[in-house]
Amino acid sequence: MPHSAAELVDRLGAMSIERAWDPYTSFDWPESLDPEAEYYMSPELMSLYGTEAYEALNETDRKRLSFYEINNFFSFVLLGERPVVGGMTERMYRKDTMGPITDYLHHFIDEENKHMVMFSLFCNRYLGRIYPEKKLAIDREMAPGEEDLVFYCRVLIVEELGDVYNRKMQEDSRINELVRQINEFHHRDEARHLAFGRAWAAELFERHTQDWSPAQLERFQDWLARYFASSWTDFYNPSVYRDAGLAGGYQLRQEAIAHPKQRAFRAEASDKLVRFFLKHGFLKEAPAL
Fold first, then answer.
1. pLDDT in tens, 31-84
2. Of the ranges 13-27, 34-48, 62-76, 122-136, which one carries the lowest mean pLDDT score?
C-alpha cells in the first residue's frame, strides 16, 4: 500500500538531517580537468552511444565527448532544479502544505540549493559556462489546480531522468572520481525527493482532477506527453558536439534521436515514471519518446 506524503515526510526529514553535507567541503575540487584524460560520463549514457558517429570516434575523441556530455547533463539538472527551488518556496506555507509537508520542504529546498551549487561549481569551473535549456511554455488558461500539477510533473521528470544517470554513474569506476561522487551525493538526496514527489503529486492529481472536464484532462495529458518528450531532447545538444570538435551538430542530433538504440534507451530509462503517470491517470497512453 503506497504511503501518503504526510506519512513519509517525518522519516524523510530525519534522513535529511542525518545525511547532511556541504558542496564546498564534501568534494576535492581540482583547479582544472583535462577533457581527454579519462571518461567523465559512462559511455553507454552518452547521447551518441550506439550510433555510427560514435563508432567512428577513437578513444580520445570519446573521452573528450564525454567531458562535454557530463557538463550538458549537469546543466540540464541544474536548470531543472532552479524552478524547483522557487516553486517549492512559493508553495511551502500555503494552507494545503502547512505542518509536516512544509517542515519537509525546508529540507527539500536546502538540498536542491546544494545541488545547484554543486553542479554550478563543476560547470563554471571546468567548462566555463552552463549549457542553456529549451522548454515548452503553456500559453492557455489552466484548470483549477493544474498549475501545481504542471509544477510537480516537471519536478518528477527532471529528477527521475536525472536519477537514472546518477544511479549508473555512481557505481562506474571507469569515470572521473569527482563526477562519480557528485552522482552519488545527488542520488542520495533525490531518492528522498522522488518518494515525496510521487506521493504528493498523486494526491494532488486525485484532489484536483475530479472537478475537471474531460477536455481539461485531455489538454493536461497532451501537454505532459509533449513536455516529457521535449525534456529528452535536451540530452541531444548540438553545442556539445560542436564543443567536442564534431562537425554537423544538428545532423548528429537528429540522427541520434532517431537511432533505434537511443530510442530503446529512452524507453527503458523512462519506464518507471511512465508507469507511474499511467497508473494515476496523468497520461492516457505512453508518450512517444
1. 999 999 999 999 999 999 999 999 999 999 999 999 999 999 999 999 988 888
2. 122-136
Amino acid at 212: W
C-alpha cell at 172: 562506474
Torsion of CA 149, 155, 157, 163, to 10 degrees: -150
Q: What is the dihedral of CA 287, 153, 229, 185, to 10 degrees?
A: -120
User: Model-level pTM?
Assistant: 0.93
| Cell numbers that stand for 195 in this block | 518518494
**Whose CA is closest to 166, among 185, 148, 141, 193?**
185
Distance CA(76)–CA(119), nearest Å, equals 10
Q: What does the buried/exposed string (b/e) look like for 141-160 if buried means 16 or more CB atoms within 10 Å of the residue's CB?
A: eebebbebbbbbbbbbbbbb
Which residues does 237 contact at the CB level (< 8 Å), separation at least 6?
Answer: 47, 72, 131, 253
Q: CA 42 to CA 54: how far, in whole Å?
A: 13
Residue ranges and CATH numbers for the domains of the chain are 5-23+47-280 (1.10.620.20)
Of 41, 99, 34, the residue nearest 237 (C-alpha): 41
